[in-house]
Design goal:
heterodimer, A: about 240 residues, alpha/beta, 6-stranded parallel β-sheet, 12 strands, about 20% helix, B: about 250 residues, Rossmann fold, 6-stranded mixed β-sheet, 4-stranded antiparallel β-sheet, 10 helices, about 40% helix
């Protein structure tokens, strides 16, 4: 990952809280996870007190790994994933970042399809209020010869206040010619008519917003280890924002 | 129950309601008919408190409370129900979840105990049966993938569960085939035809009124009620057209 203290000129740190990064510098070595060939791996990552977390994940031939991330805590919370997929491997990321106040939250991924036939799916939902900033930088790199790569990035952000900021940058670097790399990105606000409809049935405004945001985030934790805990924590954090 | 006096309202700074007055008492069913653009839907949204519908003059009193000062959810808790002309699709939010939370929010606002999950499901099943809507549809996301008729029946199931004092039904008959029209008409009668309840039906056509017989019929044109009468007025409108009657 990075050896020297980054600045905002570094693309991967462009939207970061550099003061917070400097305070945490130097970073410890990234956590390294190796999933052996044909193995499977699942983990939930809850970032609820701030800080920078770096994970290197190597997924062996025919193996499957899924990470579910809830990025909600601290003034600055960054989760950085470097994933390498070998032949026929499968990677799933389901992530939600929910921030208010002056929080800066980031999910930065580099998914390298090193060999043919691997699949990767990333689904990221951000909910941002106050003057919070939420960023997703996602690079998918397909190596020469990594044919039949199938990758997808599905990124959406919901802004609760006009003062909040969402950044989303899916990035593709492809050196093979028989690949499928889908990416979609949308940033929006809660639908006024839906909010009104829910309120007309008796839900107070905060409850109506919460129920819509819950639906927006729902899905990213499907099949997660500790799915209920993740949903409950996400809901509690949403409750603080509305 | 509801007194509307000299109501003026704008939508996007354009005057739509221009001095509308109407009184609805408990036990009564009123129908408002009128040509396109007369202000029928605006009236329902103004009474329901939709943002963007600005009251510039006049008053609306519901059970001795100033309706226009209340937020939409407070109007609901006070007993007002708005049946939407175009029910909203909300992906990811299940009907039963949102209805139970809505009903319990209303009950809480009125100082009543929340309904348990079991009691709620029993109530929902009963009302779904009344409107011949499959209970499975109630477990699905709100109105997503519903046909036009199913959306309207779902509105009536919601009305049955919420059990309001006053229902304002905005073109609940549009998009319904003949069988569904009868089901919806029967549903309205069974849920709302009580001495302590009232209904304001907003419709273009006489046909719903064959099933839900109004006590009063009003003609709305250019933002005001230009004529009122009994059920026979609806038949007269059907025969002569709005142009003749509203002139």
């Amino acid at each position: 990952m990075t050896a020297t203290l980054p600045s905002r000129r570094d693309e991967a740190w462009r939207y970061s809280d550099i003061d917070a990064v400097a305070a945490a510098w130097p970073l410890p070595a990234p956590e390294s996870i190796i999933v052996p060939a044909a193995g499977s791996f699942k983990r939930a990552i809850i970032q609820d007190e701030g800080g920078i977390r770096q994970i290197e994940l190597m997924i062996g031939k025919g193996a499957a790994a899924s990470l579910h991330v809830l990025n909600i805590g601290g003034a600055y919370g960054r989760i950085e994933l470097a994933v390498t997929l070998h032949e026929g491997a499968d990677f799933t990321l389901g992530a939600a970042q929910i921030g208010g106040g002056e929080q800066t939250l980031e999910i930065v991924t580099t998914i390298t399809h090193a060999e043919p036939g691997a699949t990767s799916r990333q689904m990221v939902r951000s909910v941002l209020g106050g003057t919070a900033t939420g960023t997703y930088l996602g690079k998918v790199a397909v190596a020469r010869g990594a044919q039949q790569t199938d990758s997808e990035q599905d990124v959406k952000a919901m802004l609760l206040d006009r003062s909040a900021t969402a950044n989303a940058k899916p990035e593709l670097e492809i050196f093979a010619d028989d690949v499928k790399c889908a990416h979609g990105c949308a940033i929006g606000e809660l639908d006024a008519m839906s909010l009104y409809y829910l309120q007309s049935r008796g839900l107070p405004p905060a409850e109506a917003k919460k129920i819509l945001l819950q639906a927006f985030v729902a899905g990213v934790f499907d099949g997660a280890e500790d799915e209920e805990q993740l949903q409950a924590l996400a809901l509690a954090k949403l409750g603080e924002l509305v | 129950m509801l007194q509307i006096e000299n109501l003026h309202a704008n939508v996007a700074d354009k005057p739509i309601l221009k001095g509308l007055s109407l009184t609805i008492n408990a036990g009564e069913i009123h129908a408002i008919m009128g040509p396109n653009g007369a202000g029928k839907s605006t009236l329902s949204y103004v009474l329901g408190g939709r943002p963007g519908y600005e009251v510039t003059d006049g008053s609306a009193t519901f059970d001795a409370q100033d309706l226009l000062e209340m937020a939409p959810h407070e109007r609901a808790a006070a007993g007002l129900f708005l049946g939407f002309q175009y029910p909203v699709e909300i992906p990811g939010v299940s009907n039963v979840q949102f209805l139970r939370e809505s009903l319990n929010a209303q009950r809480k606002a009125r100082g009543e105990e929340p309904l348990s999950g079991g009691d709620f499901l029993k109530l929902a099943r009963e009302k779904a049966g009344l409107l011949k809507l499959d209970m499975d549809m109630l477990k699905r996301p709100v109105n997503v993938g519903f046909s036009g008729g199913e959306k309207k029946r779902n509105e009536m199931v919601q009305m049955g569960i919420i059990d309001p004092k006053l229902a304002i039904l905005d073109e609940t008959d549009s998009g319904l085939d003949i069988d569904a029209l009868r089901i919806v008409g029967d549903g309205i009668n069974s849920i709302m035809r009580r001495p302590d309840k009232a209904v304001l039906l907003i419709t273009h056509y006489q046909r719903l009124l064959d099933y839900v017989q109004p006590d009063f019929v009003h003609v709305l044109a250019a933002g005001r009620i230009v004529k009122s009468g009994g059920p026979e007025l609806a038949l007269e409108l059907e025969r002569a057209g709005y142009a003749e009657i509203a002139a």
